[in-house]
Amino acid sequence: MEKIIIETTVMAPSNKVWSLFTIPAHITQWSAASDDWHTTKAENDVREGGRFSSRMEAKDGSFGFDFSGTYTLVKEPHQINYTLDDNRKVEIKFTSDANSTRIVQAFEPEQTNPKEMQQMGWQAILDNFKKYVEQKGPIETLHFEIKIDAPSEKVFRLMTEEKSYNEWTAMFNETSRFEGSWGKGSKIHFLGTDNEGKTGGMVSRIKENIPNQFISIEHLGEIKDGIEIMSGSGVEAWAGSLENYSFVDNNGATLLKVDLDSNAEFKDYFEGIWPKALEKLKEICER
């Protein structure tokens, strides 16, 4: 079956394009072909064999449908292939230079509507994505670092081990803890309890884990009163933000570097609390 081709160039780097294209909190903001349609819910397990589903509805409630399928190829941040539930195949390629990303999308048409109409609809959604990315407010990357008189293996272990993690992150919340795995690709919850006894925190995934060298955490959604919230409620303002840890050997000691994305709302808080948290981690590692 001959595929229909649509394409656009987005003025943003590939990591930002990939995040905004794949994270549910963002999908619900751009996935519509016209102003009288919207996506009310999105779920996305971006891995080979993973499922995705978006609920697309007319704003007047007159019609709606699920756009869903299964991933057959995922090469972050370069390519996504998937098969829709009606067995049509879709291929999306992302080609980037320093400041822009070219997206080329090829899909097999369905047999009900004219090909020209399908091309216009899919292109309108892709154009809406381009507009959303390019109008997205800037996220600033904050940098913190500290020298710890302990080898990187020890710093890496104590930073992520449950008991010591709870201790050094208590600077953010006395009940700070995590649930899940630090393995690459794993889902993980970063949790705390508020003054009313309600559990809140972040839904995240471990984007990269190179033992004793590097950890990258991607934040995807939030937890309110023990419930995952993956879209709406302001989640789209920061979903896809990264928290990166680099462990650099320094003659038997470790230079720990932390780079994290922040919007303006949290910048002052992070700049005040992160140095204190790292001093606590240093204390734990040097005992």
Q: What's this model, at a glance?
A:
With 287 residues, the protein is α+β, with helices and mostly antiparallel strands. It has helices at 14-22, 24-30, 115-135, 152-160, 162-168, 264-285; strands at 4-10, 37-44, 51-58, 64-75, 79-84, 89-96, 101-107, 140-148, 177-180, 187-193, 199-210, 214-224, 227-229, 242-250, 253-262.
β content, as a range? 35-45%
The overall pLDDT average reads 94
Oligomeric state of shown chains = single chain
Helix- and strand-based class?
A: alpha+beta
- Secondary-structure element sequence? EHHEEEEEEHEHHEEEEEEEH
Give the biggest beta sheet. Answer: 8 strands, antiparallel
Radius of gyration: 21 Å
Low-confidence stretches: none
